[in-house]
Structures are given as C-alpha cells and as structure tokens.
Amino acid sequence: MNKLFRPSLIGLGVMGAALLQGACSIQPWVKPYERDRLADPIMSWDRDAISGAYLDHIYDSREGSRGATGTAGGGCGCN
Amino acid sequence: MMRTLPFRTRARLVATTALLIVGVAGAAVLPDDRADVFYSDYKGGGMDITGKSVLVRKKFTEQFAVEANYFIDTVSGASVDVLSQASVIKDERKQKSLSFDYIHDKTQYNLAYTNSTERDYISNTTHFALSQDMFGDLTTVSLGFTDSRNKVGENNGTAFKPNVAWLGTARSRSFEGGLSQVVTKNLIAGATFEVITDQGLLSNPYRSIRYVSATPSGYSLGSQIYPNTHTSTAIEGRAKYYLPYRAAASASYRYFTDTWAVRAHTIELGYTQPISNLWILEGRLRFYKQSHASFYSDLFPFAGSQNFEARDQNLAASTNTTVGVKATYAFLPDGWKIFKRGTVTGDVSRMRFKYNDFRDIRDFQPPTYTGPVGDEPLYQFNATVYQIYISMFF
C-alpha cells in the first residue's frame, strides 16, 4: 500500500471510532412524551395501504421510472 | 395484458408503513388490526379499469401479525398504441398476497409472498425486509430484498376468444434501504434508496415500433427489440411537518436513473387538515418529468436501423401532473361488537399525461390526416381515478 494513504486510513479509522462512540452516547433529543404530535394519524406517510399501493401501481404502469416509493403493485393496466 | 416493467410486491408498503409507525411512535409495536373493503375506477386514455380489493390484518400476539390481501382489476378498452393496431382488450388481473410481520425487541421482520395472474402474464414475488430502531428510537433503518419471477405471454386471439402464446420469462430483483428520522417534535424525515435489476423478456409484446415505408400511411409497424437486462436506481427524500395548528404538510422528491438512459424527477406535495375528530381532509399535488430511453424513437428510418428499438410510450420523454383530494369520515367512535372504530374514505385524482416525442397515430391516420409522417400531433390524455373504501379497526 502507498505510504501516503496510511495516515489517511488511520485518520478515517479514528474518525469512524469517534463517530461510533458519539453515536452510542447520543441522547434522544425528542423525548417519548414529546412525540404525541408525531403519533397523530395525520402525520402518517400513508394511512391506507391499498389506496397508496393502487395509485403507485397506476404510475408504475405509465411511467418509465420505478422504485424508492416504499410501495408497489402487480400486473399492468398498461394496454 | 402485461406490464412493461417487472413487478414489485405490494407487501413492501406494509413493511414500510409499519416501519414508519414504529419510527414515529418510538416503540416497536405492530399496527392495529383492520379490515378494508376497497373499490376503484380509473378512466382515461381509452381505458376503463375497475378494481376491487379486500384486506385483513390481524395480530396473533403483540409480536406477530398476518395480513392477507386480494385484489382484482377488470380492464376494458385499450391505450393508444394498442388501438392503433385495432385491438381491444378486455381482461382481468387477480392478485393475492400474504404477509407476515414479527417483532423482536427493536427489530421488525417482514416476509411476504404475492401471486398475480392475468391471462397472459403470471408473476410470483417474494419479499423480505427488516427494520431496526436505534438512537433512542428516533431513527429507524430498514433493508429489503424482493425477488420476482414473471412469465410473459401474448394473446393472439380476441378479447373474448383468447389464444395465449407464452413468449418467455423475466426475473426482477430489488435491493432497498430506508431511513426514517424524527428530527424535531414536529418534523419527521425519511429517505429510501432502491436498486432494481431485471433480466429476460422486458418488452411489451403489444407495443410496436413504426418505421418509414412506402405505404399509403407512410409507415409500417414492427416488433420492438429490447436489451434483456435493465438496472435502475431510485432515491427519494421526504419530510412531513406538524403545523402550529392541528394540520400537516408534506413534501417529497425522487430522482430516478437507469441503464436505458431514462432520467426522471418526481415531486409530491401534500396537506392534511382534520376537522373535529370526525373528518380528515387531504389535498395533494404530484409533478413528474422523464427523459426518453436511449433506444426509443417515435419513428425509425427503417426496421433494424438500431440494435435495440422501442416505441413504448413508457419510455418516451413525458411529463404528468396529478391533483388529488381525499376525505375520511370516522364513524362508530364508541365501537360496535368486535370493532373499535371505522372509517369511510373517498378519494378523487385527476391526472394529465403529456408526451414530448410520442405521437398520436390512432386519431391522425390517412385519409383524414394529410400531413407528413412523423409530424402527427403529440399524444396526451387525461385520466380520473375514483376510490372509495371502508376500513374497520378491531
């Protein structure tokens, strides 16, 4: 291995360890008793599974793109 | 009838929804038991599709739940490219899925199987996902894998007297990663990354290329030739904010790219407003734009002018916009027998699709159309989607 890279790798390792150490000591900044608003049904991404999947299926069947919506369908509706 | 792009299982929705609920609530819990009856109607682009569905979700313990879903689509009519070949479709798609959720400590596992059957297309999909709460339950990380095996056919008979020839198979595999993050007590954000790779027969046999020829119309139709591999990458970021009064606003953006040179951008905006404890009203806007695939053309100079040739409107450069409204009414607030409560929901979406390089050769044919070939008006259409469903929670 090129010597020039060694300090960088060591530095990355130290940074990674520091991050992990920091992550382990992260305190929840939103306490459980402060999450009532987030738990309100109006904050749900998609309250109705069938409806969300159905609309995504319509787009999937008519567009060239797909994926990363968390939803999907089956079959076509493309003819 | 078949779809151009391979299937993905609807069960991922269940997994993701559950994951987000877990993320928001801050404790690994399964969603409420529920039963849904669903009806939809899609009208647009020469097609009329009605959908009916039943979904039941039941917790057997606080750690284990099962969900079953049956969906049936009935399609009549045909879109512009099929109509241009004087073929009318009447078909049915039946989809059955079974999904299992299991929670252990702060980890949730989901396993799902979906079978979808049409006269000329059969798909079997298996999905596995897991999600993990961390950092004081403010963060939920999820990973998912989907494997879909599809059998592709073509109906050479009529709508009422089918004669299906099985042409080949297609396999699709999806790898998905997601992150859901509680940012403040009013804001939740998320990101999803997904890579899908396909192999096999990936073209739609009902769609054709057209090329210049010495015929009265000035063109002839021929078979599409697709690569037999395809890999796509999509990444989506989203956020939802609880407003100072009881209402929520949301926004999301998705970027898509694939090995066929299609690039797409999707933006969605939403607003949710409850009225007392009985009504929830929602409005949404969606904007979509994509470029065409590298081997797409509306009119080829001659057949075989390229290694790969497509004239599938899904691969054309296009834009579409959607305006949607939804109203949910809660009934049985005090419960009834085994049911804790119920809701009825109505949803209407109006969509407008516009193509930048896909021309309408259905409505503009000789002798009524006298312009030069390849200069027909660009295709566009509107569609309206109605949904109504009843959900009972128990």
Low-confidence stretches of chain B: 1-27
Structure annotation, total helices of chain B: 2
DSSP E strands of chain B, number: 18
Shape of chain B: globular
Could you state the oligomeric state of the chains shown? heterodimer
Tell me what you see in this structure.
- The complex is a heterodimer of chains A (79) and B (394).
- Chain A has a domain at 36-65.
- Helices cover 43% and strands 0% of the residues of chain A.
- Chain A has helices spanning 5-24, 49-62.
- The longest helix of chain A has 20 residues, at 5-24.
- Chain A starts with a helix and ends in a 17-residue tail after the last helix.
- With 394 residues, chain B is mainly β.
- Chain B has two helices and 18 strands.
- Chain B has helices at residues 11-25, 80-83; strands at residues 34-44, 47-59, 64-77, 89-104, 107-118, 121-134, 139-155, 164-184, 187-200, 208-212, 219-223, 229-242, 248-258, 263-275, 279-290, 318-331, 341-359, 378-393.
- Chain B has a 16-stranded antiparallel β-barrel.
- In chain B, a hairpin with a 3-residue loop joins strand 14 (263-275) and strand 15.
Helix-strand layout with pairing:
The complex is a heterodimer of chains A (79) and B (394).
Chain A: H1 5-24, H2 49-62
Chain B: H1 11-25, E1 34-44, E2 47-59, E3 64-77, H2 80-83, E4 89-104, E5 107-118, E6 121-134, E7 139-155, E8 164-184, E9 187-200, E10 208-212, E11 219-223, E12 229-242, E13 248-258, E14 263-275, E15 279-290, E16 318-331, E17 341-359, E18 378-393
Antiparallel strand pairs in B: 1-2, 1-18, 2-3, 3-4, 4-5, 5-6, 6-7, 7-8, 8-9, 9-12, 10-11, 12-13, 13-14, 14-15, 15-16, 16-17, 17-18
